[in-house]
Amino acid sequence: MKVAIEKSNIRGKVIVPSSKSMTLRALMCAALSTGKSEILYPLVSEDTNAATDVLGKIGIGIQKEADLWRVTGGTLRAYAGDCLLYTS
Predict the structure, then answer these.
(1) In this structure, what are the phi and psi dihedrals at residue 64, rounded to the nearest 5 degrees?
(2) What is the pLDDT of residue 43?
(3) Where do the DSSP E strands lie in the chain?
(4) What letter does residue 29 receive in the DSSP assignment?
(5) Taking the mean position of all CA atoms in its chain, how far away is CA 10?
(6) Is 32 in contact with 75 (CB distance < 8 Å)?
């Protein structure tokens, strides 16, 4: 058997399943960045929705679309509402 391997170009698109931790990290990086960021294929969960709610309350703009979240960061401000502290 004879096999020849030659130089070639690979083309295509790979979509890796999202993870909660990567989505949360992307949100935090986008929030701390100046300007606009896009998060493609974020994992939508209770935790990531809670994070976007909190970020929105401290001045981060988040626009959610089907598989894309647009984040406008760099404008952090103190939250003026009630703050609950949970202890165990």
Answers:
(1) -100, 130
(2) 94
(3) 35-40, 61-64, 68-73
(4) H
(5) 28
(6) no
As a whole number of angstroms, the distance between CA 75 and CA 61 comes to 9
d(CA 78, CA 88): 25
Number of helices (H) and strands (E) in the chain: give both, helices first: 2, 3
Mean pLDDT by 10 residues, the chain (88 residues): 82 82 94 92 94 93 95 85 58
For 5-17, b/e burial (b = at least 16 CB within 10 A) is: eeeeeeeeeeeee
pLDDT at 47: 95
Q: Which amino acid is at 65?
A: E
